[in-house]
């Protein structure tokens, strides 16, 4: 009897944990996109007004931001400064190395196209490129928030109800 109760509790805890982990990924994606937009806005200011080298501008653009996005920009700056990679190669390498990001392909493509233009144009063209990237990321953020609203509750309830259904079937 106690073994069945203990097993049932473990099944419910596991399914609820799985549901909440999936829901957390949907909630994290819009937050990370907002942080990227914030970093790009700060980077635009550093490019236009302070004219500091790109690795230093990338590090300074993460001011006030913590977590995977700050680590991404700092890793990109480190790769640019230490290995002499192009901005696009450095960003792609930093994206591959980071396993905490929950970014999907559309935002990765926007960042890749943006980084291809980074450092290879004059200030006005880079300003336009930054504006375009921010605009595209804003649209992606809106879509990600819509998906977040739909799916977070669903995965949480699915985790709870799925665990209860498995327990009912097994008992």
Structural class: mainly alpha
Helicity, as a percent range:
over 70%
Mean pLDDT: 90
- Helix and strand string, N-terminal first? HHHHHH
List descriptors.
171 residues, mainly alpha, membrane, transmembrane helix
Structure overview:
With 171 residues, this protein is mainly alpha-helical. Helix content is 84%, strand content 0%. The chain has 6 helices and no strands. It starts with a helix and ends with a helix. The relative contact order is 0.17.
List the helices and strands and how they pair.
Elements (H helix, E strand, L loop, with lengths): L1 H49 L3 H7 L7 H16 L3 H11 L7 H13 L5 H48 L1
Helix pairs in contact: 1-2, 1-3, 1-6, 2-3, 3-4, 4-5, 5-6
Task: Give the gist of this structure.
By secondary structure, this protein is mostly helical.
